[in-house]
Amino acid sequence: MQLETYISDLLYRYDCVTVPEFGAFLTNRVSAKVHETTHTFYPPKKVLSFNEQLQNNDGLLGNYIAEVEKIPYEVAITKIAKQVKSIKSYLIEGETIQFEHIGELILNADGKIVFDPSSHINYLTDAFGLSHFSSTDIKREVYKETAEVIVEKAPIAFTPEKRSNNGWIKYAAAAVIVLGLGGYFGYNYYNNSIESHNQLAQEEANAQLDAKVQEATFVISNPLPAATLTVEKQSGNYHIVAGAFRIEANSDKKVKQLRAKGYKARKIGANRYGLHEVVYASFETRVEAQRELYKVRREHNRDAWLLIKNLD
Fold it and tell me: What is the dotted CATH code of the domain comprising 238-308?
């Protein structure tokens, strides 16, 4: 089982992928930036990090492997535990663990895992197809100084002969002003005539409309009572998953069972593997979702897990 392949797939969709009894790979979005020395432009991306303290199983990795390999969830968890045990033994022996497209893991002198993230892949889907590029520095001050030197060496001067031919320009300018004023007053007169005509037509149309309304006025003596409907619409990007079903009729049955137990269950559509997902409920914040997830695992289903997905 190529564990790093499954982790890499999930990092495109989630900010945290936990490997049970080992640690969690985290992503943090950073904005686009420009390197001041090399003048290189870098697109926005997700920066990877590793937290050895987050080892509790949240069900995300196990459920994903179970879906892809078509195996039971318990078998997927067993396979993960076996590979984690092997990775830890290699780390203790001083080996460097290479996770393709993710990074390298090694133990330091204190026995802590040190993670060196890979820079060959960007897990931010919004930046898909964008790559870094370099631009040469624009030296504006050099061009400005050059222009000033040219002006000093070649000043512009008008000769008396050229100035003497400016008389016809004055007459042309006066003609342009006269024509412009005439056009302006003519345009205003035309607009005022059009507005008066439109206003008379509008008043006539309003009078005809009032007459029609008075002729068509009627009273309903027995109106129907007003109906009030209450529709509860769930929202939020944090969903507690109850299961995923190949046959949609089974997902409908699961929703009815959960609602009978008091949960606000619903279907959120099919995932990219064609499985119809059913959730206990959806929440606006991660804190609310985590609190409900612990309750669901304690009271109903220990295999429930948290899905972060935008349904808009």
Answer: 3.30.70
Is pTM beyond 0.85? Reply is: no
Contact 14, 64 (CB under 8 A): no
Amino acid at 158: F
pLDDT at 33 over 60: yes
Q: Are 149 and 54 in contact (CB under 8 A)?
A: no
Q: What is the pLDDT of residues 207-256, one digit of tens each?
A: 665 555 444 444 444 554 544 444 456 778 899 999 888 899 999 999 99
Structure tokens given for 14: 């989630």
Q: Which residues contact 285 (CB under 8 A, 6 or more apart)?
A: 236, 238
Rounded-to-integer distance, Cα 132 and Cα 214, Å: 71
Q: Where are the domains of the chain?
A: 3-134, 238-308
Phi, psi angles (nearest 5°) of residue 264: -90, 55
Q: How far apart are CA 85 and CA 72, in angstroms?
A: 20
Q: Is 195 helix (H, G, I), strand (E, B) or coil?
A: helix
Of 260, 265, 269, nearest in space to 240 by CA: 265
Nearest to 287 by CA among 236, 243, 242, 234: 236
- Distance linking the first and last C-alpha atoms of the chain: 34
